[in-house]
TrEMBL record:
It comes from Methanothermobacter tenebrarum. This is Phosphomevalonate dehydratase large subunit. It catalyses: (R)-5-phosphomevalonate = (2E)-3-methyl-5-phosphooxypent-2-enoate + H2O. It holds the Pfam family AcnX. Its EC number is 4.2.1.182. The keyword Transferase does not apply.
Length: 390
């Protein structure tokens, strides 16, 4: 592939070992996917943060890499959720051993100047790529949000390739960076008006049909940003979708529809049932997959203000939005009803299986899809208001 003089110098090790190693990863990826050149990126979102998911091998790789002074990111780079709340891990019951290793991972990233914002919704707290800009993001729910709602361009990176891109400020130009791979190829007509968590069910259903295709949605009403967050997360987890369009919002510049499908509430019923693995009552309810927006926290707080929860209840969000919720008094209302504000982590990447829970209630199709395999626990999937009433 073609490299500029500067990129070649990075490749030849003139800027240090970590830069050289990172450039070699990017060139190898570019060669595999037929990239002809690199593009400059404006930001990175780096997954592979939880000690639960990357283990000792990941920890050692990051510590080793971060010792090299050339391992410093060139663009704004933010971290995906970690395996614990970085401040309140003791109160939530995480072990000291887990916490020590998790902190070493965060420290290694911080040495490389990656921001320890620890959220899968970086676009809610300031890592907001502009329309048309190239980025290297590796959280599938954030990738699809960036490509679809923000109009930026990113492939579904892995943690190591997003980090390599951040260290070089470049990513190979293939896949969703190129116009020809951003053509809508399946029309999805949504016949009924949906609400809240139903957008996750829709994403789960459509993702299984379209795989890595590019759907274009025709909705009856206009979903909210939070609903797009749920829709995209589910599309990216049951399928490998990285980009979708919405008629009237971000219509596809080009469409080559190979298929057209219609979806109504009845077609979603089976998916709705599939997402629960038990009829038992949850002993933990978790919302915030992807991490809650401040608007979602506000609605939870208003609903819970005069209620008492009958089981543990986690509201997962970023540290930044938890601070905002504290100042608004939302956190007090949630805590007052028996809930907990959990920042930096979530029900999938934290070791909830070691905290004595058996059945987790979630309103996120993505979380319902992942908890049985990633935590080995049973799941009840429903609207959060129904879960709270159970
Ligand atoms: C499941 C997921 O949201 C979080 C776990 O990933 P990681 O621990 O950040 O590698 C990753 C993804 O969907 O890209
Ligand atoms: S599993 Fe959900 S909450 Fe956890 S990091 Fe992924 S998108 Fe975010």
């Amino acid at each position: 592939m073609y490299l500029t003089a500067y990129e070649e110098e990075m490749y030849d090790g003139e800027y240090g070992e970590a830069v050289e190693k990172s450039m070699k990863i990017l060139v190898a990826l570019g060669d595999i996917y037929g990239a002809e050149r690199m593009v400059e990126i404006s930001s990175a979102q780096i997954s592979g943060v939880s000690y639960k998911t990357i283990g000792d091998a990941g920890l050692e790789y990051l510590e080793e890499l971060s010792k090299d002074p050339s391992a410093r990111v060139k663009v704004q780079s933010s971290l995906n959720p970690a395996g614990m709340d970085l401040d309140n891990w003791r109160e939530l019951g995480f072990s000291r051993e887990f916490a020590d290793r998790q902190s070493r991972i965060i420290d290694a990233y911080m040495r490389m100047d990656v921001m320890n914002t620890c959220t899968c919704t970086p676009y809610l707290i300031g890592n907001i790529p502009t329309r048309g800009s190239h980025v290297a993001w590796s959280e599938s729910s954030a990738v699809i949000y960036a490509n679809s709602i923000l109009g930026a361009r990113t492939n579904r990176e892995g943690g190591p390739s997003a980090l390599a891109a951040a260290i070089c400020g470049r990513t190979p130009a293939y896949g969703y960076h190129l116009d020809e791979n951003r053509i809508a190829n399946i029309l999805v007509k949504v016949e009924d008006s949906l609400e809240g968590y139903e957008y996750g069910v829709l994403g789960y259903y459509v993702g299984k049909i379209v795989g890595d295709g590019v759907p274009s949605f025709r909705f009856r009403g206009q979903p909210s940003g939070d609903e797009f967050k749920s829709l995209g997360a589910a599309l990216a987890s049951s399928g490998a979708v990285a980009l979708y369009y919405v008629e009237g919002l971000n219509p596809a510049v080009e469409c080559e529809f190979e298929d057209r499908i219609s979806v109504d509430s009845a077609s979603l019923e089976d998916s709705m049932d599939e997402l629960s693995t038990t009829n038992d009552k949850p002993d933990l309810i978790c919302v915030g997959c992807p991490h809650c927006s401040l608007g979602e926290i506000r609605l939870l707080a208003r609903y819970l203000r005069h209620r008492r929860l009958s089981c543990d209840f986690w509201v997962c969000t970023s540290h930044a939005l938890k601070v905002a919720a504290d100042r608004m008094g939302y956190s007090d209302l949630i805590v007052g009803s028996g809930g907990v504000m959990v920042s930096d982590t979530c029900m999938v990447v934290s070791p909830i299986e070691d905290l004595g829970f058996d059945v987790v209630g979630v309103d996120s199709a993505k979380a319902a899809n992942y908890i049985p395999s990633m935590c080995g626990l049973d799941v009840v999937f429903d609207d959060w208001k129904n879960l709270v009433r159970l």
